[in-house]
Design goal:
This protein has 183 residues and is an alpha+beta fold. Strand 9 (150-155) and strand 10 (158-164) form a beta hairpin. It contains six helices and ten strands, in the order ββαββααβαβαββββα.
Length: 183
Amino acid sequence: MAALLRQARPVLRTMMWIPARGFAASVGTDVVKAAPDVKLQKARTWDEGVNSQFSTTPLSDLFGGAFTGVCSAQHVPSYLKNAEKFKEKGVDSIVCVAVNDPYVMNGWAEKLQAKEAIEFYGDFDGRFHKSLELNLDLSAGLLGHRSQRWSALVEDGKIKALNVEKVPSEFKVSGGETILGQI
């Protein structure tokens, strides 16, 4: 696979990130085949045990970014407020995946009061995002390896629509309303 995010190029004077474009994930990509050995862990408490096999549902919507300002204030709420509309359009599950452990994902889901409507999964080592080349290195900003801000409509494991923000701090194309319009 070509590098999804070949390299984030910081513009040092403004500390703004201009990511190189070119993603392995695209419409038609089979998410399960692209990440065959990747295990995502469902958000949980320590006492709930380990459920580490990611499985696709017939129709899902994927997005994510734990405790970040944009994801907490805009991204997740755009899916939460539209959860019923997704069900009406036949979406089986709304899935949020972020580069974090399942405990952080659980705490974030609880804080946002979103656990009933959205499934949260931790991509603890970023391999899921790397396999789709949706990874993003924000080490220069002291944030480490993360993922692009993105959303995808996935049907039977295949990406039917993919929306990736051009700049990590933007929220223009990856929200729930955009995906609703793509179903």
